[in-house]
Amino acid sequence: MGVTNDLVRRVAEHKEGVTPGFTKRYGVNKLVYWEAYDDYEAAIVREKTLKRWRRDWKRALIEENNPHWADLIGQIAPGFAVGPG
């Protein structure tokens, strides 16, 4: 979970494993849920709210919107690719 002004760049960083932390340690590299906000402060408030949620609530939110846990990066960046080639 996090707030960014460049979701495609952020996803690429996670997929390439260049940023140390939870996502690199546990191999988290799929975008399965995201929300867009025009207001940075509102995005921060939402992030803090979601971080306080129980794990099963977060899973239900994802599955309500993405029941197969598909990688959604292709929806926001068609043809997205990481690495050589």
Structure keywords:
mainly alpha, 49% helix, 0% strand
Structure description:
49% of the residues lie in helices and 0% in strands. The chain is mainly alpha-helical. The protein has one domain. The chain has helices spanning 7-16, 22-25, 40-52, 55-65, 73-76. It is globular. The termini are far apart.
Low confidence ranges: none
**Count of individual domains:** 1
Classify the helix fraction into a percent range. Answer: 40-55%
C-alpha termini separation: 29 Å
Report the radius of gyration as a whole number of Å: 13 Å
Total strands: 0
Number of helices: 5
Q: Shape from CA axes?
A: globular
Largest sheet: none
Give the class from helix and strand content and strand pairing.
Answer: mainly alpha
Q: How do the SSEs run, as a string of H and E?
A: HHHHH
- Give the overall average pLDDT: 91
Q: Could you tell me the strand content as a percent range?
A: under 5%
